[in-house]
Design a protein that fits this description.
The chain has four helices and eight strands; from the N terminus they run H-E-E-E-E-E-H-H-H-E-E-E. The protein is α+β, with helices and mostly antiparallel strands and 216 residues long.
Length: 216
């Protein structure tokens, strides 16, 4: 996997990349960069290797029932962070996609840390190997210090913010992109809207929901 360029010169991702349907944008985000800027200006840079798509007409999506105070960010302009607490334990970071007013987002499931190990390691003392630092959506947010109170509704394409989606031009070859069922989803479990880069050890293991509805 190609290294990132110097973090201070990374351009933000173009907003137009995020205007397509969620299941199209999700694989397009593979290879893009998630940058976390600390209060002292130091940065962690991670390359996204796994994503999941959700949209309003998808029964597995938080937005399926319409707007609520919790899901309001999913209906915001593309590039907005939707950060929610999963099962009351882990924060999960999503980026909104499609057009404003459509409840669609892509969950950032896993990433490979390229820079900032000295910043991430103290937050992920349980990780025995580098591959486990950002392996799974809860670990990703813990490692980068992303949480709902500080980062929900953040514009991830505004370079003035402390969490950014950036682009150094690298993408995996199409032959390396895989698709399959989403992790832990009870409804629409057979919809192949999880995408990952084949061969990347940071990709999280697939675990189906114990009560997942199977296709008939």
């Amino acid at each position: 996997m190609a290294p990132s360029s110097e973090a201070s010169h990374l351009p933000p991702l173009e907003r137009d990349v995020l205007r397509g349907r969620a299941e199209v944008v999700a694989p397009a985000l593979l290879g893009t960069l998630l940058v976390r800027i600390e209060s002292d200006g130091s940065r962690s840079v991670a390359r996204i290797v796994e994503t999941e798509a959700y949209r309003q007409d998808d029964p597995a999506s938080h937005s399926h029932a319409g707007r609520t105070p919790r899901t309001e960010p999913m209906f915001a302009a593309p590039g907005t962070a939707y950060v929610y607490r999963s099962y009351g334990v882990h924060w999960c970071c999503n980026v909104t996609v499609e057009e404003e007013g459509v409840g669609a987002a892509v969950l950032l499931r896993a990433a490979r840390l390229l820079r900032g190990h000295e910043l991430v390691r103290p937050r992920r003392v349980a990780a025995k190997q580098d591959r486990d630092l950002l392996r799974g959506p809860g670990r990703l947010t813990q490692a980068l210090g992303i949480d709902g109170p500080r980062h929900d509704r953040t514009d991830l394409l505004d370079p003035r913010n402390t969490v950014l989606l950036a682009d150094d031009g690298w993408r995996p070859p199409q032959t390396a992109v895989r698709a399959g069922g989403r992790v832990g989803v009870r409804l629409a479990a057979g919809v192949p809207w999880r995408f990952w880069i084949a061969g990347q050890p940071e990709v999280s293991p697939y675990r189906p929901h114990p009560r997942a509805e199977r296709p008939t």
